[in-house]
Design a protein that fits this description.
Blueprint lengths: L12 E7 L4 H9 L7 E5 L6 H7 L3 E4 L8 H14 L5 E6 L2 E3 L3 H11 L3 E10 L6 H9 L5 E3 L6 E4 H6 L11 H11 L3 E12 L6 H22 L8 H24 L1 H22 L1 H9 L1 H17 L10
Parallel strand pairs: 1-2, 1-4, 2-3, 6-9
Antiparallel strand pairs: 4-8, 5-9, 6-8, 7-9
């Protein structure tokens, strides 16, 4: 990996935005991209609102995905990167979802981080929920994104990346319906690159989760991602998402089944299992707070469903459809 100066003045930065029916959120997203970031590509995934027209008015190159093919965010990001390269390319590409806005100063700070960390292929910062006061589900998202600063294993959907490094490892895996960013980061790290999270505000995200069912589906999608990630990269040394898959099955499947059997043959067994849930919940509440601790335990139920769905579809040789929460 050759080192070049990673300053805003010397490195060209482009952007790839993906979305569907984001409406005003997309307008705000495109408006938040600094004028010096060019080209900007917007990849639309079958919007029925005026997203395409809004992106064109904002000066973005629009790519409309062929929706006769299975859609994934990974496929959209790859299409955006391909279009960006066709427009002349950029040394760095800012990937961002259409329901997010870039924070002022983020691009400059991230470019500086590439100079500080010459082995980095990915730099990400703090993604925050735009309206955490709107619902407990939004607050859970905000807490989930508060990951440790420093060298990391993975990033989320918003990140600044070296275009050549991403291209060299084949881009995002278009077959993944979730977890495509950790999968990409794993392959980048295997190729000798690094992922860094810096203590800088990066994006504001609008989860727009106001219903329990939305949170349930989002957790179910996470379980599916754990199962597929472990199936792809679960062998040593990475053991990618093996522990997450195991925890989902223990707390979301094995223990509930054991409790049901216990009710029939040994009621005391069911009582012990219930006590284990109570103790686990109290332990997590003490460490993380009431909302995050309680829902972390409850979330193992939909996660286990997602794990089961993945393996059943794998046995049937069926492709799992997109699991959306909004």
């Amino acid at each position: 990996m050759s080192e070049t100066t990673m300053t805003r003045a010397t490195r060209q930065v482009g952007a790839v935005v993906i979305g569907r029916n984001e409406g005003p959120r997309l307008v705000a997203c495109l408006a938040s991209i600094p004028a010096g970031v060019k080209p900007v590509v917007y990849v639309d995934s079958g919007s029925t609102d005026d997203s395409i027209a809004a992106a064109q008015r904002a000066g973005a190159k629009v790519v409309a995905l062929d929706m006769t093919q299975p859609f994934t965010a990974a496929r959209a990001r790859n299409a955006g990167l391909e279009a960006l390269n066709a427009l002349g390319g950029a040394d760095l590409v800012q990937f961002i979802d259409g329901d997010c806005i870039l924070q002022p100063g983020w691009i400059d700070a991230a470019c500086k981080a590439f100079s500080t960390h010459p082995g980095a292929a990915v730099v990400c910062g703090r993604r925050r929920e735009r309206f955490p006061e709107a619902s407990v589900w939004n607050r859970l998202c905000d807490a989930e994104w508060d990951t440790p600063v420093g060298q990391a294993k993975a990033c989320g959907g918003d990140a600044l990346m070296r275009t050549d490094a991403v291209t060299a490892v084949g881009g995002f895996n278009p077959g993944l319906i979730a977890g495509e960013e950790p999968d990409l980061c794993l392959r980048l790290r295997a190729a000798g690159w690094q992922v860094w999270r810096i203590p800088v505000e990066m994006t504001l995200h609008d989860a727009a989760m106001t219903r329990f069912g939305q949170w349930w589906n989002r957790s179910r999608r996470a379980g599916h991602a754990y199962a597929e990630g472990a199936a792809l990269h679960g062998s040593p040394p990475e053991r990618h998402w093996v522990a997450e898959r195991r925890r989902a099955l223990i707390w979301g499947l094995y223990l509930p089944l054991a409790a049901l059997v216990g009710l029939l043959v040994a009621p005391w067994m069911a009582g012990l299992i219930l006590l284990a849930y109570v103790l686990q919940t109290l332990r997590l509440i003490h460490r993380l707070g009431l909302e995050q601790g309680a829902f972390l335990v409850l979330g193992k139920l939909p996660e286990a469903i997602g794990v089961i769905e993945y393996h059943l579809n794998r046995i049937r040789r069926r492709r799992t459809g997109l699991i959306e929460y909004k």
